[in-house]
């Protein structure tokens, strides 16, 4: 049971390129199913790790990396295929790049080894997933465009705010 959370997380990493490829082919119905699988494995790996005390240092690093690669790649692919505006992908990728660079800096310069997600970061991730599902659902013909707009604005607001919050915390750590 000790390795199950890491295997589930690794499965998301392995699945990511396939999701990107499906998005380029506009296979949105399959992407919806895979997003459900991804969401379940993401919730399940954390639950198993906590419930069975199967946490690991590798898992602590791998889980957020898997999430960033999957979501960042999805936003980039959707922007490149013109399913979303490139500036929106830029907001998501820019925030993630800022967090990554700060994490690397503090890891090496300050010996800070823990980068726990904030409540705003988790809310931002949830909004991003909801927006992607809304876009893919729209392009599958299941919903109309006005349904997607609130998810877009929520994604913009929470991604921006979480970036500001992470920057504020990083500046507080820097003398």
Query: Which structural category do the helix and sheet elements fall into?
Result: mainly alpha
The separation of the N and C termini measures 42 Å
- Main beta sheet: strand number and arrangement? none
By DSSP (H or I, 4+ residues per run), the number of helices equals 6
Number of domains: 1
Shape: globular
CATH homology-level superfamily? CDP-alcohol phosphotransferase transmembrane (TM) domain
Any idea what the radius of gyration is? 17 Å
* pLDDT averaged residue by residue: 88
Question: Given this structure, which CATH class is correct?
Answer: Mainly Alpha
Helix content: over 70%
Low-confidence segments: none
Q: Count the strands?
A: 0
Q: What's the CATH topology label? A: Four Helix Bundle (Hemerythrin (Met), subunit A)
CATH second-level architecture: Up-down Bundle
**Range of strand content:** under 5%
Write down the secondary-structure element order.
HHHHHH
